[in-house]
Amino acid sequence: MAAGPALEMWSNQSGTAESPDGRTRTLTMQRGFTVTLAASDALEVVYTASGLPLLGDLYPGAALVFCDTLQPQRVSPIMAMVVATYKGEIGPSGIGSSPADLPYSIVWRGATTDEAIDEDWNGKPIVTVNGEPIEGLTERLTDDVVTIQKAYMSVNRYALRAYRRAVNSDIFLGWPPGTARIIDDQAEAVFIGGSIAYWLVTVSIQFREPFRTTPAKAWYKRVRHEGYYVRDFISPSNSYSKPRLAWDSVTKTPVTRPVLLDEFGVQIPPSEGAVIGEATGHWLEFQTLGSLPYNALGLV
């Protein structure tokens, strides 16, 4: 025969709330029910009783606390007691809130890179006594890197892919547009009751120091302007000639190494930087990344 309705016993209610790491809040609750059945019925008949929770059911009033155990025990020939155990996580506002309501965590660290330089601290060109540029010198710069961890109910990996090739178009964590770039990201599924309850997302963002450039161009590729072809300035027409091979005035042959060029492609004489005190080369900057609003990610 079918088991009788399940009646909850107030005397068998208990629970435990834990937070081992001070951030995640784990809740375990227990409820007890009595179920009548025929003396000839097998014990598993109790699972058909109306009013008895099913595996995967939410605890009353909870958002992510699910029933994961039903343990029946026969206490007489016609009665059984069933203990239902619920486990899950709760948010900061109590049993009805979600872990996605938890505040984000944020960690700052530094990351160093070696950048090519052609000027000293005072802005003077790094050249030989004859005015020739000294190549291969670098300066170690330190960027800020922030790692943010936050829970989301869902993630859109396709939308995030665009951010991997984009800098911030807005002010983000106090840094101006153009300085922030995502360098690492991870989304970990958190299962509760056999299904994905939420996603724990971790994102690392590097803020590039705008060395010898503006913040908007902090992530631009920067290379010294030099090559084997030059242009000539045509004074009467105030214009420039078509590119031609750079010529060595001493050997009267084409140059065997790149020459420094100004912003118009005109060769910079080797001694110009040393005599005039200007930089020994012009640096070209190329945009290789797009621009998107970082605040729209909802990380902070």
Question: What features would you describe in this structure?
Answer:
With 300 residues, the protein is mostly beta strands. It has three domains: 7-95, Threonyl-tRNA Synthetase, Chain A, domain 2 (2-Layer Sandwich), CATH 3.30.980; 101-215 and 290-297, no CATH class; 224-286, no CATH class. The protein is built from two helices and 20 strands. It has a four-stranded antiparallel beta sheet with strand order 1-2-4-3, with no helix packed on it. The protein has a four-stranded antiparallel beta sheet with strand order 5-6-9-8, with no helix packed on it. Mean pLDDT is 88; it is low at 272-279.
Write a brief caption for the model:
With 300 residues, this protein is mainly β. Helices cover 4% and strands 44% of the residues.
How widely separated are the two ends? Answer: 58 Å
Net shape = rod-shaped
Count of discrete domains = 3
H-E string:
EEEEEEHEEEEEEEEEEEEHEE
Helix percent band:
under 10%
Average pLDDT confidence is: 88
Spans of at least 5 consecutive residues with low confidence = 272-279
The radius of gyration over CA amounts to 35 Å
**How much of the residues is beta strand, in percent?**
35-45%
What is the element layout, followed by pairings?
Blueprint: E1 7-18, E2 25-36, E3 65-76, E4 79-90, E5 105-116, E6 138-152, H1 157-163, E7 166-168, E8 180-192, E9 195-207, E10 221-224, E11 226-227, E12 229-230, E13 233-234, E14 239-240, E15 244-245, E16 247-248, E17 253-254, E18 259-260, H2 272-276, E19 283-286, E20 290-292
Parallel strand pairs: 7-20
Antiparallel strand pairs: 1-2, 2-4, 3-4, 5-6, 6-9, 8-9, 10-19, 11-18, 12-15, 13-14, 16-17
